[in-house]
Amino acid sequence: MTRLSVTPVKGFGLREVGEVALTPHGVPGDRSLFLADDGDKLFSATRSGVFLPYWADLDVDTGVLTIGRGDDVLLRDVLEPGEPVRAHFFGSRYPTGRVVRGPWAAWLSEVAGRPLRLVLVDVPGAGYDVHPVTLVSEASVAALGREADGTPLDPRRFRMTMTVDGVAPFAEDGWRGRTLQVGDVMLRAGGPVKRCAAIQKQPDGEPSAVNALRLINDVRGVQDSELGKGLVLGVYGEVVRPGALRVGDRVEVAEQEPVAAPAG
User: 3-state SS of the chain: helix, strand, coil percent to 5?
Assistant: First the structure.
């Protein structure tokens, strides 16, 4: 495994970490907060990359959230959940949470140029789009092409939990239903991740001269996913056995598991 990436606030820049303690709900604190507009709709990187240059860090033990940019800390305070809200992510997905009191709304609204609130999810894992873990290989990203300046396409653009190396392009597509042993952790590989407009933006919020969705379409075409037909890259994962996950861990894919014989 070459990269572990998390963010407590959906739509903010990812932070690369060397180790996490993975639970059945994913990485503690990861995507545990989101931004809601005045129509109770998710405001994420799909709609705007305005918060991609900013990072966030959550101490899950103390409930202290820190927001910064570069080396500068801009806000730090204890999360104080307030009134309930039911927000619309997409389709039929409506997670519930609590609007966080304090300086957050004023700052977020100023940066975005529109009214926004910070929401803490009610249930661990509710802030994920579909499943708690996502995985892509370096080779799959490289197979799509390059940035406009000829440099390799940045895997951070795809906002995955885990990035792995040492496999053929799109090998992870064939792992569905199989067990992955990664350090102390055991995962069950799931189906493909349907991509959205968030990948059209550079991971640090800079304008992108590359149409990443078009690259996927040119190389892979439209495929099925649990969210319907679309452009896919990488796969989901479910946590079978929690534990420590570290950059550098070896990823071992179990042999194809037998399919149960039909009854009768």
Answer: 15, 40, 45
Report residues of the chain scoring pLDDT below 50. Answer: 258-264
- The DSSP output letter for 14 is P
What is the domain count for the chain? 2
Predicted pLDDT at 256: 62
Q: What is the DSSP letter of 252?
A: E
Please give the Cα distance from 99 to 118 (Å, whole number).
6
The answer on 174 and 113 residing in a single domain is no
Name beta bridge partners: 99.
Answer: 119
**Structural domain containing residue 211:** 133-253
35 and 119 in contact (C-beta within 8 Å)?
A: yes
Two tokens, residue 93:
């997905």
Q: Is residue 264 part of a domain?
A: no
Asked, for residue 96, whether it belongs to a domain, the answer is: yes
Q: What is the pLDDT of residue 257?
A: 54
| Gyration radius from the chain CA atoms | 19
CB distance 89 to 242 below 8 Å: no
Residue 116 lies in a domain: yes
Written as six digits, the tokens of 82 are 């307030």
pLDDT the model gives residue 207:
78
Least Cα distance to 47 among 201, 210, 202 occurs for: 201
Written as one string, the DSSP assignment of 74-98 is: EEEEE-EEEEEEE-B-BTTB--EEE
Distance CA 31, CA 14 (A): 10
Per DSSP bridges, beta strands 133-137 and 162-164 are parallel
The Cβ-side half-sphere exposure at 166, using a 13 Å CA radius, reads 10
Whether the Cβ atoms of residue 66 and residue 75 lie closer than 8 Å to each other: yes
- The total of other beta-carbon atoms located within 10 Å of residue 73's CB is 12
**Tokens matching residue 259:** 């399919």
Kindly state whether residues 111 and 203 are assigned to the same domain: no
